[in-house]
Amino acid sequence: MTAKAPMNLRRLLIGSAVFRLALILYGEWQDAHMEVRYTDVDYLVFSDAASLMASGSSPYKRTTYRYSPLLAFLLLPNSVLHRSWGKFIFSASDLLVGYFIYKILKQRKVAEDLCLYSVMVWLLNPFTFTIGTRGNCEPIVCAMILWILICLMNGKIIQAAVWYGLVVHFRIYPIIYSLPIILVLNPRKSNAHRPSSQSGMEASTRYNLWTAAKSMFSKERVLFGLVSGGIFFLCTGLFFHLYQWEFLNEALLYHLTRADPRHNFSVYFYHIYLQYGRQLSLVEKLISFLPQSIVQLVLISTFAQDLPFCFFLQTVAFVAFNKVITAQYFVWFFCLLPLILPWSDMKLKWEGLGCVGLWMGAQLHWLLWGYLLEFKGQNVFLQLWMASLVFLLANASVMAVFIRLQRFSPIFLQIKVSDSKSGVKSQ
Amino acid sequence: MRIIGWICWRWKMGIIWKFFFCCCFIVVTLSIYGDCLSLEDCILKSYFSKNEVLTDSSFQDLLQDELSKFSCKLLPGDPNPQLTLSGLERRLIGEGSHRHLSSTIQLQVPPQSFPLQSCKLVMIERLPSGVFADPFELDHLFHHGAYAGIGVFGDTNLELPSVSSNRSAVEIHMNFEHSISSGAMSELGIRIDLPLHARYAPLHESGYSEVAFGTPDLLVSCSMEGSSGMRSCLIVPSHDSNRLRTDVVWKIPCGIMSHTNVVSVVTFATAFVSTLVIVFASVLYPKPR
C-alpha cells in the first residue's frame, strides 16, 4: 500500500485492522477461560504441524493435516514467537484482499465511492473477519488469487504464472481458473475472414484452422502454462522428496478423491453415506462428475473474457456442485463478489436482498436440520438431505440472477487493427 | 535431569511419581498425556504395543498378566490388600452425537494397616465400535486439570464411519481426593466424565443404531516398598455385581437402506436441474458483440 492511498481507504483498512486485532485478543481470552474455543480446530492442526516441522519431523505426523508444507512453514513462528502468529498472518492477508479489491477496481476505472463500498462488502462481512481471526488460512489463498488477477491485468504473465502455480499447489481448487486465464491471455481473433481472392475455399479453411491452432498455442499461453506447471511440479517434487507418500496422499490425493459420508451442505452427502463401502460403477462415477464439468465448461466459454465474473461464477458453481461443502469454502467466492458488483444492475431492493435472503435462508434451513441431527440425535437424514437439495437450487438460482443482471465487461479490450497483428490493452 | 533424579531419590518416590514429574518436561504425544507415558504406568500402551486391534479376550489375558506381574503382595504367599468397589453408576449425559460418559465410583478401603502409598484410580474404558474419544479434546481437558493422566489408544481416526474403523480404548488415571492411610476406613467417591463422539453408524431400517457400553476395567495403582525400592503395583477392587449399575446404551441415528434408490435418483436429478438453470441463464445471456 502506497502513502498516496486515499484517506477513506486508509481509515477503512486501519479500522478493520484494529477490529481484527481486538478479535484475536478476545479469541485468546475465550480459549483460556471458556470451554468452547473461539479458535478454529484447523488452526490447532496447523500449529501442531508447524511444531512438528520445527522439531525436524514431518508435519503429516499430525492427523488431519491436509495442506501444503508451506502452510506449516509459514506458521513456524507459532512455536517460537507466539501461538497467535498465524492468526495475524491470516488477518493481514484478509486486509490485503481488501486492498487488492480496491486496486483492481481503481484500475478498471470504477468511481471512488463504489470502490470503497465494494471493499466494505469484504472487510465488513462478519464471515470474513471471523475466518481469519479464528485461524483459517483461506484469506491467504484469496489474496493470491486477486494478486494473480492484478498481474494479468498489468501484463505480468510470468509473475501471474508463478503465483498461479503456487496457489494451485497450496489449495488445488484454483485449477478451475486455468482455462479462462488461458483464453483471456491472447484474445486475438483469427484473421481468417480477411477476403482472399486468390485462394479457394479449401485454402481459406486451411488458413483458418492453422491460424486458430497458432493462436491457441500463442507465446503468452505457452509461457503461462509452462511456468505455472513448472512451479506446481517443482513444489510437488520437492515436498515429495522431503515427505514421500504421506505428503502426496494427505495434501493432494485426499482432496481429489474425498467423499465424506458425514453430513455437510453437499447434495451428495446422503447418497455417499448410503453407498459407502460399495464400489461405484463407472457410469455412476461419471454421472456425479458431469454436472460440475458441464457447468464449468459453459461458464468458461461464455464469460472467460470477463475474468473476475467468470472466476466468481466458476467458484460458486464449483463449491455448490462439490461432493463436500464446508462453510470455509464460501470465502473463496466472497473475495470475488466485490470485483463484480460495480457492473451489476442488481438493485439492493429487492433483487439483492432477495438473493441474500434466499442463499442465507437455504443455509439456515440446512443448519436447523443439521442441529437436530447432530446435537439432538434425531434421525432427520432425509430432511437434511432435502435441505441440501434446496441449498443447491438456491445457489443455482442466485447464479442465474447474477448472470441476468450483470453487464458484460471484458478485462481486456481488443483493439481491432487492419494489419495482421491484434493487440490488447487493459480496460 | 540430575536435579530431578536427586529429588526423586531424596523423597523416595516410586517410579510412578518419577515419571509423572519427568513428564512435565516431555512434549506430550498426540494421544497420551500425564503419567501414562511408561509401559508400567499405562496398561493400554502395553497392550497396543503387542496388538494392532482391540479384542476383549486378548485384553483380558494381558490384564491378568499385568496383575500378576505387578501384584501388591509383599510376599508371594500374602493376601492382596483389600479394596472394595462399593458402587459404580454410569450415565450417558447429553444429546446428539457428542455426549459425556459419566462414571461415579465408590471405593471402600478397610481400616487395617495398609502398606501402600500414592494410590490412584485407573479406569480402562474399552469403547464399543461406533463411538470414539477425541485425543485433542482430551489433551485440552488434561491441561485444564481434569485428569491426572489419560491415554487414547487404538483407532483414533476422527473421520471414518464405524464400518471402516476399529475399536479404541481410553485409560484414565485419577488421583484420589483423600489419601489412603493406615488405621482409618476411607470411603472414596470419584466421578469421571469422558467426552465421546458418535461415528456414522451402519445403515439400519429402524433409523437408529444402538451402541452398548460394557463395564469399565477399574484398578487401583499404588506405590509400595519392595525389596529393591519403591515399585508400582495394581489391585483389582472386589465388587458385588448387583450393586453396579453399568447398562448404558447410546442410540445413534443412522441412514436407512430403503432410501438408497430414491436418494440417488433425486440427488442426480436435482444436480441436473441446477445445471440446466445455469446453462440456460448463460446461453440466454445477452453478451454484446
General description of the model:
The complex is a heterodimer of chains A (427) and B (289). Chain A is mainly alpha-helical and 427 residues long. In chain A, strands 1-2 form a two-stranded antiparallel sheet. In chain A, strand 1 and strand 2 form a beta hairpin. In chain A, helix 14 packs antiparallel against helix 15. Chain B is an alpha+beta fold and 289 residues long. Helices cover 25% and strands 34% of the residues of chain B. In chain B, strands 1-6-7-4-10-11 form a six-stranded antiparallel β-sheet, sandwiched between helices. In chain B, strands 2, 3, 5, 8, 12 and 13 form a six-stranded mixed β-sheet that branches. A two-stranded antiparallel sheet of chain B has the order 9-14. In chain B, a hairpin with a 4-residue loop joins strand 2 and strand 3. Classes of the chains: A mainly alpha (427), B alpha+beta (289).
Task: Give a quick precis of the structure.
Chain A has 427 residues and is mostly helical. Chain A is 68% helix and 2% strand.
Note the topology.
The complex is a heterodimer of chains A (427) and B (289).
Chain A: H1 7-33, H2 41-54, H3 69-74, H4 77-80, H5 85-107, H6 112-123, H7 126-133, H8 138-153, H9 157-171, H10 178-185, H11 201-216, H12 219-257, H13 269-274, H14 282-303, H15 307-320, H16 331-334, H17 337-340, H18 348-374, H19 381-404, E1 412-415, E2 423-426
Antiparallel strand pairs in A: 1-2
Helix pairs in contact in A: 1-5, 1-7, 5-6, 5-7, 5-8, 8-9, 9-12, 14-15, 15-19, 18-19
Chain B: H1 2-10, H2 15-23, E1 32-34, H3 43-50, H4 56-69, E2 84-93, E3 98-109, E4 117-126, E5 131-132, H5 135-143, E6 149-154, E7 168-175, E8 186-198, E9 208-213, E10 217-226, E11 229-235, E12 238-239, E13 244-245, E14 248-253, H6 260-283
Parallel strand pairs in B: 2-12, 2-13
Antiparallel strand pairs in B: 1-6, 2-3, 3-8, 4-7, 4-10, 5-8, 6-7, 9-14, 10-11
